[in-house]
Amino acid sequence: MKISYFCLTCLFFLISHVNDGFAQKKKIAVSKPAVFNPADRPKNLSDTALLELVQKQTFRYFWEFGHPVSGMSRERSNIAYDYGDEVVTTGGTGFGIMAMIVAAERGWQPRDSVAARLLKMMKFLSKADHYHGIFPHWLNGATGKIVPFGRKDDGGDLVESSFLFQGMLAARQYFDRDNNVERDLRNRIQWIWSEAEWDWYTRGNPNQLYWHWSPNNGWAMNFELRGYNETLITYIMAASSPRYPITAQVYNKCWAQSDHFKNGKEYYGVKLPLGFEFGGPLFFAHYSFLGLDPRKLKDQYADYWEQNVNHSLINYKHCVANPGKFKGYGEDSWGLTASDTYNGYNAHSPTNDFGTITPTAALSSFPYTPEQSMKALRYFYENLGDKIWSEYGFTDAFNESQNWYAKSHLAIDQGPIIVMIENYRTGLIWKLFMKDPDVQTGLKKLGFESPALEISSKN
């Protein structure tokens, strides 16, 4: 398999930690219900009721399992790869923040309780390790000190930070009331956001943007952010910065200049404007678009609604065609993306397919493939629920050919399920993020067109 077909994040993770697989996994000692029996899950639910249940149950990962000191999202629900239960993830926390907005809006938790939790997180982040205002991939959730993601990955992570800031800016828009907690929350978000030095990560070159910088290892990681992949949001955040923005030149000369940016080919009869052969892992259509609304979003390179719908359809059609003849694939069981698998962790895609289906792939694609995603949701819940339904929603993945069903949950997989189902149902997070004035400035700077920008220009 070509290296370029992996999400770079997943690749770093594999290089750094795959040596001992999952052999040493232990359950984190946290408070959980004494007994959870998936066989007792509600039956015969309407589509609406099932969507609500899945969102609400999955939210428990972020609310009940959040770190008790910082409130941040834990990386995963099990200890693996020699790191402990204090590890929290910055990108997964960004997804969790957006999930908490959904919870406040739907009344799963009181608005003031959610605002207070987010304020605790911002107070923690204001003192946590950062590198020119950019946070590392992992932090110790009790102390705020960096937990290195890899041997040289011990500094700022621009991509994970962009996922975090995507959530923070959505929260800044939602929690707009004139009371002490929400006012303090907005002010702290603004302070942390304004201090992030996105332009530092160009190394002074207007044609480059880099993923990492470390005070110990400098630019040794040497990964430029070249598309097309999950890092589109990083460019938008960097261009939107009120104090340390990048220019449009970086977007056009770095992001859009690679051998896997433009595509234009057809796969299973579906044209793919951008990206890898067959589209790559499906999280490319999710992570950047939890806040960024792809509906009628266009720039000189693509129509991003077409891009994401077609990417999702190709992934679906591949699983239906099932060229690898894996057990369980079909119209109601599909979705290839990065996740745990029976022999470790992998970035699954049509060109890297070993029979592992990851529920977040189909479920986070609800806005793009509602009919196909609903079929998958019902199959996961009704047919496989005894094996993959849990107190935190669906477990991470399964492989019926190997008779393997994960017990683990990952923040970066659970969060998009909640947020993208909500965007399908109401567009809530899309509306919040797209009305942020800084975001609108960044989108205009990079040459994007969107109905949200047209609305703002009229007001």
TrEMBL record:
Protein name, UniProt field: Beta-glucosidase
Xref: InterPro entries: Glycoamylase-like_cons_dom, UCP028431
Domain of life assignment: Bacteria
All copies of domain Glycoamylase-like, residue ranges: 222-436
